Amino acid sequence: MSIDITPAPHEDPALELLRPYLTEAVLALHNAGVTVVRSWLDPSGPRDATIVLADGRALVWDEETGWRVGPYVAGEQGVRTVLADAVHLGGGVLPVPSEVVWRLLAGITGSCVKYRAHDENPAAFDAVVRALAPARVLA
Predict the structure, then answer these.
(1) pLDDT digits over 72-98, tens only?
(2) Exposure string over 96-118, b if 16+ CB within 10 A, otherwise e
(3) pTM
(4) CB–CB of 83/72 below 8 Å?
(5) 45 phi and psi, to 5 degrees?
(6) Angle in degrees, CA 135, 14, 56, rounded to 5
(7) Cis peptide leading into 46, omega within 30 of 0?
């Protein structure tokens, strides 16, 4: 596997905090046989991240609504990703990566749910992200 498919470090500490979660999602997809082309961390307000798949789709995660998938239209690091006809995968705002893969492969979708506002107690959300990262990396 090429390391090039995992997200590069980001100069913004608020986005860099999310890199282990996105990396874990990329690796879970790869381990399930899903071909990942590239991934990156995106702008803030809300923070989001993108994983582009070889089949022409992309997964986008954001800190308000969690994961969605759809045909990839455009995007790059620093620019919001555009998907056509995106559907939400459900599972909450921070589902474990294996659940993201399961939902994607099983075709499980849900309504768009805004689980939180990105500017609502960001320190508490960041604390959850920090607390989950070490456990996931070691698992």
Answers:
(1) 999 998 899 999 999 999 999 999 999
(2) bbbbbbbbbeeeeeeeeeeebee
(3) 0.93
(4) yes
(5) 80, 50
(6) 80
(7) yes
